[in-house]
Each structure stands twice: as C-alpha cells, then as structure tokens.
Amino acid sequence: MAKYEITKSIDVDELNKRSGLPTGKKRTLAFGAIISDRVEDRDMDRFTYLGELYRTKTADLNDACRLIGEEPPPVPTPTIVPAPAPKPPAPVKPTALLQWEPLSSSIPASRAKVPGGWLISITNGGMTFYPDPNHAWDGASL
C-alpha cells in the first residue's frame, strides 16, 4: 500500500482498531511522520500511523502530505514579458528660425530681425546685413 509523508503538522482523531469509531483522543502528527493504508471515507480520510488507526478531513490531509517517491511539483518559472518598446517621439514640425516679412520694393525683397539689426534678402539670391540695434527701421528707403 502507498505511504505518505506529512509535510506540515496536522491534527487527527484516534479511532478504535476494531470498530473504527472515534475514541475522543486528539493527536497532532508532526512534520515528517509516515502514514499508510490511507482510505477515503466521505469527507474524511482514515489511515494508519505507527500501527494505530486515525482520521482527519480529506482536504486537510491533502494539503499536509505527499506520496513518498513522488517528485515534488516543479516550481513554475516566471515568464518574463519584455517591456514594450518606447514609441518614437512624434516628429517635430520645424519652426522657422527667421521670421521674414516682405518689404515694399520695386524688386522682391524681405527682411528678418536678427541680433543687432536686419538681414535683408533679395529674391534673385542676394543677402545683406543692415545694422540697426534698436530695430527702428520701418523698411522704407531714405
């Protein structure tokens, strides 16, 4: 018959060997005790320990014993889920570093405020700097 090892202390009732009825004596089986002749009887299990007959609740006994020779259940290895890749930043719409304003002129020209004056651009490709630290020039010619 199968033998079981108690894996944690458990309270049991002593049974009469002949009648199988409870004697009223309680006992605690300690860790490491070996039981045998285990038989399920409704919600209770009957078994033998050191030649004496005992019983306890099936659920309690299932939690407190393991079949000798049985491998312990494998410890599940944690599943490592990689963190989602960070989303790339949204493309930044470039802002104009120079704010050009058209000049009232006979040729297409524009000006932009820069430190110390104005940068003047002519559509055919020419560019110059006009010093005006206070940016007082209104764009008109003198």
Summarize the structure.
This protein is mostly beta strands and 142 residues long. 5% of the residues lie in helices and 43% in strands. It has one helix and eleven strands.
Description:
The chain is mainly β. The protein has one helix and eleven strands. The protein has one helix spanning 58-64, and strands at residues 3-6, 10-15, 22-29, 34-41, 44-49, 52-57, 65-67, 100-102, 109-114, 117-122, 127-131. Strands 3-2-6-5-4-1-7 form a seven-stranded antiparallel sheet, covered by helices on one side. Strands 8-9-10-11 form a four-stranded antiparallel sheet, with no helix packed on it. The longest helix is centred in the middle third of the chain and has 7 residues, at 58-64. The chain is rod-shaped and about 130 Å long. The mean pLDDT is 87.
Count up the helices: 1
Q: Based on CA inertia axes, which overall geometry fits? A: rod-shaped
Measured distance between first and last alpha carbons = 118 Å
Radius of gyration: 47 Å
Low-confidence region ranges: none
Q: Main sheet, how many strands, which sense, barrel?
A: 7 strands, antiparallel
> H/E element string?
EEEEEEHEEEEE
In percent, how helical is the residue content? under 10%
**DSSP strand (E) fraction?**
35-45%
Oligomer designation? single chain
Structural class: mainly beta
**Strand order across the biggest sheet?**
3-2-6-5-4-1-7
Number of strands: 11
Mean pLDDT: 87
